[in-house]
Design goal:
alpha+beta, Ubiquitin-like (UB roll), 4-stranded mixed sheet, globular
Length: 69
């Protein structure tokens, strides 16, 4: 069983471990995205435009986007 999954943050491929969250994907992509999300400067949404929390679960191939608020 593969312990790592690939997800996309703002269309950039990021490899994280299974069980990691949106927060971890942001950190793996760019720490400033995580910092901005924590400060409320960006909203993280899924590929359908629904807001997701920083503790939200991710699955293989998930796509999330950081949008300025």
């Amino acid at each position: 069983m593969n312990e790592r999954i690939e997800v996309f943050v703002n269309d950039r491929k990021v490899t994280i471990y299974q069980g990691m969250t949106v927060k971890h994907a942001l950190l793996a992509c760019d720490q400033s995205l995580y910092t901005a999300a924590m400060a409320g400067q960006v909203l993280v949404v899924d590929q359908y435009g629904f807001a997701v929390g920083l503790e939200g679960a991710l699955t293989e191939g998930a796509r999330i986007y950081a949008r300025l608020t």
